[in-house]
Amino acid sequence: MRWDAWGDPELAAPLSEGTATLIRGMLGVSGEVTLPTIDPATVAVSPSRLSVDDLAGLRAIVGADWVSAADADRLVRAGGKSTPDLLRRRRAEQDAPDAVVVPGTDDEVAALLAWCGENRVAVVPFGGGTSVVGGVDPTAEQFRAAISVDLRRMDALIDLDEVSQIATLGAGVTGPEAERLLGDRGFSLGHFPQSFRYGSIGGFSVTRSSGQASAGYGRFDDMVQAITLVTPRGILRAGRSPKNAVGPDLRQLILGSEGAFGIVTSVSVRVHRVPAATEYEGWRFDTFAHAAAAFRAVAQEGVMPTVMRVSDEIETALNLARPTEIGESDDDLPDKQVPGGCLAITTFEGSPTAVAARAGVVREIFTAAGGQSLGDGPAKTWEHGRFSGPYLRDALLDIGVGCETLETVTTWAKLEEVKAAVTAALAEALPEPVVVMCHISHTYATGASLYFTVVYRQGDDPLAQWQAAKQRVTGAIAAAGASITHHHAVGRDHRPWLAAEIGDLGVEVLGAVKHALDPLGVCNPGKLV
Amino acid sequence: MRWDAWGDPELAAPLSEGTATLIRGMLGVSGEVTLPTIDPATVAVSPSRLSVDDLAGLRAIVGADWVSAADADRLVRAGGKSTPDLLRRRRAEQDAPDAVVVPGTDDEVAALLAWCGENRVAVVPFGGGTSVVGGVDPTAEQFRAAISVDLRRMDALIDLDEVSQIATLGAGVTGPEAERLLGDRGFSLGHFPQSFRYGSIGGFSVTRSSGQASAGYGRFDDMVQAITLVTPRGILRAGRSPKNAVGPDLRQLILGSEGAFGIVTSVSVRVHRVPAATEYEGWRFDTFAHAAAAFRAVAQEGVMPTVMRVSDEIETALNLARPTEIGESDDDLPDKQVPGGCLAITTFEGSPTAVAARAGVVREIFTAAGGQSLGDGPAKTWEHGRFSGPYLRDALLDIGVGCETLETVTTWAKLEEVKAAVTAALAEALPEPVVVMCHISHTYATGASLYFTVVYRQGDDPLAQWQAAKQRVTGAIAAAGASITHHHAVGRDHRPWLAAEIGDLGVEVLGAVKHALDPLGVCNPGKLV
């Protein structure tokens, strides 16, 4: 992963001519590079505050090869991948963690936490580094330094129970690596968030990640059967059975804990056999409201596709189904088939009989709700490009165009109102014209997520500009009674609104749990609670 | 509800001649009444430890009509409905709460909790009184008295969002009342535990109840969208949206809290339209192992019936599908159709298309797994008698026959081993011959519940006899790595094994949450944590 942009440099593409022309025309920017990326060799990285003795202490725990205070190692763990993060990366001075430490076992993690408590050093767990809420910011807060604890050595498929279909994976296993390890045994996890290529099992857990196949395989928190959290007070293992009545569900206290209670080192997740059959079907709905009603009917009937998502009119028109090719002209492409309407995507995975049965039920409901089938083309096109979206943002930032995503979730009754409130808040906070695109990608019986992409002309201080807009839009979300995040988590950026969501008493409860597990407060300070 | 037996006296039936003959023959008991029930007028109820001033203080909070220290009122809240409870009810001396207080609002509940803290009085929330784990035992522990806080006035359908299909119900609404209130609007909750007729929404929440239609509508904890907990420290409201990433899920901390953190006063639950279509299908499998494999295949495919349960060979032979008619002879009845095998029941509810699609997938899987369809008869028979089981127990206790249920949940890989361990522990702990019946009634992709009914000859001290057996069997469950309870909760009876299940650190976390919300410890002391 690049230190200052999304993903793999090999996959980063310049803006296509069509996209560049469209964006220039819409937003009135010249296309000149106004905010260039910076050569990491020229960056002034904050000097490590750890002494030679400190580093020796850390090396005594994890081994000499697994501690680094080198600028290059620290720089790639300087933060996550939100637009503010990427804007900060284009500065000549960078804050970075004071060392990168890579433990290999639960015992080493426990020893690190003890060392950090004794030595007044904050611990910032690091998986894929894809946080977009400041969750891996190397903030020391009241401590004298902060180390990044990189979990990449915890990369094993520890156990696969093929009968129960439960896999135990190390926290550092990435999305593709999980699929490879399981695929060798004929299984799949089926968790495909936008961050799939870099995100880790531990990160998916502590942020309550939700993948593109959530309709079929559930959110990541639904998949978790058991989880191991190494805390300064010892190891907490939660989850003895699929579901039970042994008091509160402690798994659900560790899930979403964002490193604030300790470090997740392994997770047992439900897996499934690599599906025997897959069906794809794209649909056109006249309006987003029609599509939402159709999605609601499907979820309330309880017979779900594996993937079910729909873009609103604007996202459909701008063809975010092919995120690297906004504005490209090709009459065969899906946006040409849905003029003025909304493009929905469904896929179905499972046995041939089950796939046919589920697809039949969904087809009946969608047709009754006014949907028109577009065949399998749009869904296949979407699947092909589904992890490429974030690359586009880096190319836009170069030419002074801001691009960020944000998300929420609410009940069906409030969906349109929340969508309008977010759109209005962005339009008020950013210079005209603001392009706001939206899709539903996670559907429940009682409500759905709303995922927004906003594109706008950057001002003289792009960071302050976006922070003001984020402040406004998150306030609008909270005021509308929706959740401040559906799957991005709280981190540092959403923390000011935590009490609005869960109440002061809810914040106190989380504080009590943190105090019980991390009495000195060294675990990811400044995040979540 | 009777104070000393299950349910409605009108529905209690004496043992049929066939059942009585079978039981007498199997267990070698005479059929004479050896342990009679007792006339409540002759019972010595523990005197109330509350003063006139105390009662005046309570009346000032909830109103004069809603506080009682009368023996008759206290006696019906003396405990739950486990076999030990019913054995204790046959004694001449009874412990009872010191008063029964019936609040009508959240503010009254909050004021009661404050009063109890100031006056050193324990608070035992009371819903339907159907606990089988000592969850409503009126234990004062370190306090000078204990009051039963009966939630029956909180009996309203507070809100119904027909679009999002979310109903907000008062904690005191019972199962049948929820169905009536929702049914008037064309909706259903679909939560049908054995305790359905008496259990309350609050009780279902704090015990993580699971109903017979859990395959289709989920466990009660799956249904909960939002929940209000009144605590001594204030009101905690959790659940703004169906699912989100706003840190740990505080709903899942309140669910299963068994009154130890405060009192749940209202719950927002997912509901569904009264189904347009229902299909019933019974199945015969050669063995329990075959049936379990078939259930596993269905759950792992992810296309579920609404109800899916299977009795093992012994339960099938003794025809617990008709629990009031054990041993009755009728060639048309389902047990005659499955000699030597296992009877499974499925029902499907939903739209006609969805019902047909789901039933088709399940039929294909069951047939491939060796199942033989028995048509719709067995499932309809089961549905008719499904809430009558507990009545049988009271009639058996009269004649010196012990009858109790216990349950667990584990992964598919461990299911047979756990079933064998429980059966062996019961056989070792109780006098020969012990009749152990088992069924699966809650099925997950990764495992299933096991629900046991044990029938045995009682000894001279039936309470001590069962407690020793319970000790042994719960130890066996914990040692086998299964959960100590799937849906009965922890209460007082399972509390000694809590640390074996969640670890000492897990118990500490729950203690920290309790301390944050209930610093004086007045909330249901001695239960859960």
Automatic annotation (TrEMBL), chains A, B:
GO process annotations (BP): lipid biosynthetic process
Binding site residues for substrate: R393
Domain of life: Bacteria
UniProt keyword list: FAD, Flavoprotein, Oxidoreductase
One Pfam match: FAD_binding_4
Active site per the UniProt annotation: Y451 (proton donor/acceptor)
Record-annotated FAD-binding PCMH-type domain positions: 93-274
Cofactors, names only: FAD
Site-annotated residues for Important for enzyme activity: R309
Binding annotation for FAD: 125-131, 207-210, 258-264
Coiled coil: none
Gene Ontology terms, MF aspect: alkylglycerone-phosphate synthase activity; FAD binding; oxidoreductase activity
Family that this chain belongs to: Belongs to the FAD-binding oxidoreductase/transferase type 4 family.
PANTHER family assigned to the protein according to its UniProt record, in alphabetical order: ALKYLDIHYDROXYACETONEPHOSPHATE SYNTHASE, PEROXISOMAL
Protein name: Flavoprotein
